[in-house]
Amino acid sequence: DAEITQSPRHKITETGRQVTLACHQTWNHNNMFWYRQDLGHGLRLIHYSYGVHDTNKGEVSDGYSVSRSNTEDLPLTLESAASSQTSVYFCASSESKGGAYNEQFFGPGTRLTVL
Amino acid sequence: GNSVTQMEGPVTLSEEAFLTINCTYTATGYPSLFWYVQYPGEGLQLLLKATKADDKGSNKGFEATYRKETTSFHLEKGSVQVSDSAVYFCALSLTGAGSYQLTFGKGTKLSVIP
Known about the structure:
The complex is a heterodimer. Chain A has strands spanning 4-7, 10-13, 19-25, 31-38, 42-51, 54-57, 64-66, 76-78, 87-94, 105-106, 110-114. Chain A is mainly beta. In chain A, a hairpin with a 3-residue loop joins strand 4 (31-38) and strand 5. Chain B is mainly β. In chain B, 39% of the residues are buried. Chains A and B meet through strand 5 and strand 9 of A and strand 6 and strand 10 of B.
């Protein structure tokens, strides 16, 4: 069965370190998204990609970067981790049909703690 | 811009009670509407959707009707179970080429007690 996986599921790091969160999908979807989930803020879009070599900034992109070298993977990098980036991170993917077909499939999430 | 407003939680209900979670939206254009559910420790999963005015989405006993005149998409269930305890998110997506993003509400946490 097709799926979307994230690794690691839990990560503790220190302020200033570079961290990369992995996202891998086997749906063969063109669109991939990274969100962070925080109490009181719901889901906020960090970055998204509509295809290989395409990346775009979301509403909370400062301090994060992504690259898309193939269809299956969209790793999220925190260049220099800050305590404000402690959060739960979700990756999602969707087809490129638009409208009602914009259903996104979510991974299980990565809980990141920055000390 | 586009936005989704959900009723503030948390909501606590007894088993077999009636559930309503309000959702209203603002959109430049004609959106598709979604309800997602997030069970503890998991990612979001689609619960139901509707693509045009007066459409009713339904799944697992949950229903929501797309009301264009009131820009609403309220989630209802006639008799909740303990297993329905989760966070529920309302979301919209605009139709049209290149519109692949979802705009989410902040979520409503539901707790059902036996």
